[in-house]
Sequence to fold (250 residues):
Amino acid sequence: MNLAPLIIAFATYSRIPVPMVQWSDENRHNALLYFPLIGLVIGALLFLWLRIARFAHLNPFLTGAIGMMIPLLVTGGIHMDGFMDTCDAISSWQSKEKRLNILKDPHIGAFAGMWGSAYLILFAALLSAIPDKGILPAALSFLISRSLSAIFSVSMKKARPNGTLAAISGGDVRLTQWICALNIGIALMIITCLAPFVSLLMLLLLIPFSLLFIRMCHTKFGGITGDLAGYFLSVAELLMMVSSAFGGML
Fold:
């Protein structure tokens, strides 16, 4: 079994130490197939932390703040970087070409700073408010978000045909779509059994957001990029935290 695509996925989208492998085109092309596994790692760590915090009766603010740091520590903030770059690009009201250039700009803009700060504050607040019934759904959210992001990444037109996303998503598209769809289906079935209102709220929020995201990519950027995929993943996770917090109360 060729484990190189799995290792490349973890090397690209996480800060988890992995052995060195050859970054050939063949190995890189199927890396997104294993991308959701990083979500399982994040979800397991978050689940463990929230359970420990509840058992120890820790301050809710501290619980949410440390919980918010877990995805950043595991991923190195790569998806938040995409979220913030996209916020700058969308807020610029420039042409497609200039928006794509903004995505590549390593400097942070005012809109990225404002929306990035608001995102992290809200994410931590939602984690601090999640009831016990919403902890597992919140943990599974990271698997769902990465599975959806992988499906969009391999399925949609690339705004940069020679970009990093194009290089890492050129493998077996149909296999990636089916495996990621299976991940989503299993996760939603588990959530539905535990907290049906959480899964219902997730669907009500994720479906329209996904449609709007697809339209935004095509109209404002001419396709999807790695930064845009990170933006989608980040917003989807926030929406699922909303679902876990409020749906878990019902």
